[in-house]
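debug: dumping io for the single-chain case to check the tokenizer round-trip. Nothing else runs in this session.
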Amino acid sequence: MLGRLHHCLWVACLMLGVGTAHGQTLPNGAYGPYYGPATGPDDYVDPNIVSELLPPDRGMWWNVDMRLNQAIQDTSHGMWFRLEWMSTEVDAPGRTLLGANMSTVPNPREPFDVQLPNGVITTAAVLDTSSVNFDNINGIRGTWGVPLAFGHVETMVWGTENSTSRINTDLLPATDPFQDVRVIATSLLTNGAQGTSVVLYDLDFRAQYSTEIFSAESNLYYNYQAPRLGLRIMPLAGFRFVDYDEALVQKGSYDNSSGLNAGGILIDPIDRRIESVVDNDVYGLQTGLRTEFVHQFFTLGCEPKVALGYNHYEARVSTDNLRTSPYVPIVTDGLTESKETQNLLAPYFDWSMYAKIHLTQSFHLRVGWNFTWFSNISRADDNIYYNDNGLANPPAVRARAEEEALGVSNFTLGGEYLLP
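debug: decoded output
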């Protein structure tokens, strides 16, 4: 143990000796630290200041390291980050019928007569999606920017929570004897043509429509010699990816509480389900123009963008117990699934407006509004083909690819931090 301590002391002394030797004044202009006193009135050096002369040969990587270090410092000095809360609104699907048009009924949303195989006549109605709305969806958006010699690069990522709008009815069960509608129906085509086929629910019926959005984009802004204050215009070019998903799930039960069939109420109600899910993946090359007016205390800006988009989407529809019935004619339907995929051009347009208040040199408060118009987007309510090919054949409610335009708007509020 003492031997090891002695070795450590010897090493420490040796290192102190080397340090002291390097700390001495070296004659004849030799390289090294210099502590010496002034040799003339013009050569006075504060004894507390240490200077070191560098050798002529500084190594082959010295210049590269210095340039890299300077580039990293310049880049980090101009980087900035922004985090914002979003309130998003998506276009509602409208008054899409939860069924097919019928040959003998002008508007299935209104009460109409249905005759069962046993001869009993009842009054039914088909619901629609008019009560669905996708307003005030919470989301979050993060943006960061990196300066370049001729402009800067911005990368933006945002997403919304899964928002669900429910379609409910208080018409079931029909306990009011004066109520017009006794059952809710899903109307079906017959071999692809309008007919009178329906699926009935008398215990309950409910549907839920949900949506979710994710977007990521990166843009290059060209602002070479743009003024720091005043009006400045910056052309841009970039790439964007948008994932837009929707799901519509319809569930209903039949237990003969309406008394349409003999035998009383079913112990085990028949639960029917129709589900439609669609996944849109939009890829776009975009270009546009950012115009800003920068003041010492605030910034106002707008940014229109247009893009050549490409949408790859997949629509899926499944049914379960669609026509199942213990009454004549007895039918037992299991689970059915179908899928349809499409690839098509989907140009879109994006418009943003914003204002920033410069609270400090490094922190800005930002509020903004953004609207995006997408073309050729597939939606869950449009993708259901309500059809029936007869009880001798499997259920024919399946996926059918349809597209339409879609508008998405965002209100944002957040803060921006610039690295010093």
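debug: round-trip ok. The two ends are 52 Å apart (CA to CA).
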